[in-house]
Amino acid sequence: MVPPAGADSYAAWVATLRLFASVRVAAGTGRATIDGATVDEVVANACARYGEEFAALVQGCRVWRNGEPACGADAVADIDEVAILPPVSGGAEGPRLASN
Fold first, then answer.
1. Number of domains into which the chain is organized
2. Would you say residue 40 lies in a domain?
3. For residues 22, 45, 59 and 7, what is the CA-based torsion angle, rounded to 10 degrees?
4. What three-state secondary structure class fits 60?
5. In contact, 2 and 9? CB cutoff 8 Å
6. Domain that residue 70 falls in
7. I need a labelling partner for 40 at 20 to 30 A (CA). Which of 18, 33, 49, 88 fits?
8. How far apart are CA 42 and CA 91, in angstroms?
9. Residue 63 within any structural domain of the chain
10. How confident is the model at residue 24 (pLDDT cuts 50, 70, 90)?
11. What are the pLDDT digits (tens) for 29-82?
12. What is the pTM of this model?
């Protein structure tokens, strides 16, 4: 796997995570820096950090990267923002990631 543009190494793969509504409450924050080389890794690491309640809520959310619907395999770098949107703030029930 090749590091995303702007990343010098695997260690540089960190994204800003933005959280809204119920996932924000479950996490106790609206913004965090989370390690991960892909959107899926960022979301998985956030679930590990914030626990079972957060992880359960994420299942019904939409995930965006830099203002666009995200696919799980989308690469992230330290300049990227990953947003988790519950249904009340623009998400929807069903798959949380856009398909390729």
1. 1
2. yes
3. 100
4. coil
5. no
6. 13-89
7. 88
8. 18
9. yes
10. very high
11. 999 999 999 999 999 999 999 999 999 999 999 999 999 999 999 999 989 999
12. 0.78
